[in-house]
Amino acid sequence: MRVLIASDDTALVAALLSSLRHRGHAMVPVDSAADTEAALAMHDFDLVVLDLALAHMGGASLVRGLRERSRDVPLVALAIGCEGRERIAALDAGADDCVGRPFSIDEIHARIRVWSRRDFGSGQRLVRHGPLSFDVVDRVAYFQRTPLKLSRLELTLMEALMRRAGRSVSKDVLIGQLHDGGFETSMNGLEVYMHRLRKKLPPGPARIATRRGIGYCLEMDSEPQLSQRQDGPVPAQAISCL
Q: Alpha helices, DSSP H only, in 2-58?
């Protein structure tokens, strides 16, 4: 999952990044209300974790503004105590859930699992492309019904390609996805990882194609084309038309 974390609490953000990236989620941290709005305007996220203390004007106002811009993305609010008026105001403003401090990282991850199941419960949990499928909740890639043995880094690349199957994905986007997942690499390193990922995909119609000067594309091999040339004698019908 791609999760936006909006908080200026550096200790909290560091703990969330370390724990959730280890579990395979792609995390994008922002530390201001303006950056939160900009991130939601420019990118798609599966979940937003919003620290209500981020907004000096009041957490409920920030939640309301974000909900007007992104109506569908699940939003989990973090608040001191998360009881009484603050909790009610955040939920009334459009938050889907509210977690009170102090809380454990395991509790946050449990809430993420809950909302990921709800978000993908209508059949979108599995992203499919030909014989390949990717479970975005449990983060498992399948060929037909057989799980593929992929590393966390390879799963991150696979998810990025599966979500954009049939379209070119730039190297910059893929490196950004790896960075969000806690992996640092270069253009040359990305090529090495893509080579390894290709080798782990079973033979079949789905393949990772290189788009020179752009990046990569998960595509399906087209049906073999009939040759325009005919060997052997020219049919009589063709002779009669000459």
A: 10-22, 33-42
Q: How far apart are CA 105 and CA 176, in angstroms?
A: 24
HSE of 115, CA atoms in CB hemisphere, 13 A? 23
Cα three-residue angle 102-75-82, rounded to 5 degrees = 30
Q: Which domains does the chain have, with CATH numbers?
A: 2-119 (3.40.50.2300), 126-220 (1.10.10.10)
Interior angle at CA 166, CA 119 and CA 215, nearest 5:
105
Residue 83: what are its φ and ψ, rounded to 5°?
Answer: -125, 160
| Widest CA span in the chain | 91
pLDDT, one tens digit per residue, over 194-230 is 999 999 999 888 899 998 888 999 998 753 333 333 3
CA distances from 145 to 164, 196, 207 (A): 21, 21, 17
Contacts of 13 (CB under 8 A, 6+ apart): 5, 7, 29, 31
Residue 141 CA to residue 146 CA, distance in Å, equals: 8
**How far, CA to CA in Å, does 139 sit from each of 73, 83, 147, 156, 210?**
19, 34, 10, 9, 24
What's the whole-model pTM score?
A: 0.58
